[in-house]
Amino acid sequence: MASILKVDKLDPQSGTALEIGSSGDTITIPSGATFTQSGTMNASAITAGTIATARLGSGTASSSTVLYGDQTYKAEPGGGKVLQIQHTKHTTYVNVTSDSFVSCITVTITPTSSSNTILVLGACYIGAVGATSVNSRVIRVVSASDVATQVLNDITGYTASTGRFEGTGSAFQWHDSPATTSAVTYDFRICSAADISSAVYNNYLVDGNQSSQITAMEISA
To answer: Which of 35, 86, 176, 199 could form a disulfide with 109, with the two C-beta atoms 3.0–4.6 Å apart?
Structure first.
């Protein structure tokens, strides 16, 4: 039968160190009892187990909250984060002798949420022969019906000098809101603006091919 010692206070016999129990013993505070700590308890004394999230701060700890410096759980900061990046580099020479737009380079990205946006960046090399003019545009393609309507960037009228091969970089950027979780393709296209008997081109240089690049980044809402 366990012995019960009833006292109001325990003091060390000498000095200021008081030991309760021996190595390997378990000191139990029964349910309903309260352990009151008025002095100093060093955090280094906690050497096993984990501390319950409710002891770290007020509010509700969850996968969508974070613990702030004021010891409260609040909603995780959102918006403006880059969630994924898709990139395409294209060095193949594309020759166009039509006044209808022809695809030169594409990048495809699948948004994780319909409320997220897509930042599209590109630098594509276009050129023309003689006095021909070249138009370029970027379109968003989610389905076939989008091709004619979702023009994101339209550049008209780069014209080469008479009798010369000339080219220039066509840089563009667009912050798009496709509002879908389906795969979205951004398509850089060119066409002849005037004289369709002469060629316009993408990535062509007299001494070798240029490169075009297009990047799509998903940005959280």
So the answer is: 86
